[in-house]
Amino acid sequence: MVYLESLIDYPQKLLDVINLTIDSDLSAIYNIESSKLDKLKKTVYMLCVTKPYDLNVKKLSSAVETSWSTLSKYLERMDAGSLIHVVRQGQGMRAVNKPDKLLLDNPNLFTVLCANPNIGTIRESFFVSQVGLKHQIHYHDKGDFIVNDKRVFEVAGASKSDEQLEGNPFGYVAADDIEIGFDNKIPLWLFGFLY
């Protein structure tokens, strides 16, 4: 309930929580050297400005100045620390061979970490933060996400068509900027009730 304590201080308090999570919690639990903590912070900032589908693991590990194997360990730890979501592609060998989709854990993080956040990334972050709490979620090649290996969701704005989902009886558009759903379009805000 940090938000209710003071609206003016909220951004600073949120930044303090991010820093505390990295500097204290993750470093103590996972024995991360203090000299490496800046790499975790840099990764969080990089995810803030990168569209999830534009993520290139080589570029990310190069920007953070660490190997991909070390960075993937950091990503797992930040996922466990509720700083990011690591969304994998499908199951089995597909999950191993495909890179992950990485999102900030909570849309509020964008307000303090990004000067100009991408609205599509914020929408996806919101969807995953709400649905992923109680459901299995993977990213999908014919939509943004597949939930419980059955329902495929495209997360977008109000004008998004369902063309990408055609032929899928379990395909839905989670649309921002609509109040009432119709056909296979569900208002994105309704997913907030799943939390």
Defining traits:
single chain, 195 residues, alpha/beta, Arc Repressor Mutant, subunit A, five-stranded mixed sheet, two-stranded antiparallel sheet, 8 helices
Explain what you see.
Helix content is 43%, strand content 14%. The chain is an alpha/beta fold and 195 residues long. The chain folds into two domains: 1-117, Arc Repressor Mutant, subunit A (Orthogonal Bundle); 118-195, no CATH class. It has a five-stranded mixed sheet. The protein has a two-stranded antiparallel sheet with strand order 1-2.
How many helical elements?
A: 8
Separation of termini?
Answer: 15 Å
Written as H for each helix and E for each strand, in order along the chain, the element string is HHHHHEHEHHEEEEE
Q: State the fourth-level CATH superfamily of the largest domain.
A: Winged helix-like DNA-binding domain superfamily/Winged helix DNA-binding domain
Mean pLDDT: 87
Radius of gyration: 17 Å
Q: Describe the sheet with the most strands.
A: 5 strands, mixed
Q: Give the helix proportion (percent range).
A: 40-55%
- Strand arrangement within the widest β-sheet reads 3-4-5-6-7
- Gross morphology: globular
**Low-confidence segments, ≥5 residues, pLDDT <50?**
none
| Beta strand % | 5-15%
Count of individual beta strands: 7
Broad structural category? alpha/beta
Give the helix/strand layout:
Layout: H1 2-5, H2 10-30, H3 37-49, H4 57-64, H5 68-80, E1 84-87, H6 92-97, E2 101-104, H7 108-113, H8 119-131, E3 137-139, E4 145-147, E5 151-156, E6 171-175, E7 185-187
Parallel strand pairs: 5-6, 6-7
Antiparallel strand pairs: 1-2, 3-4, 4-5
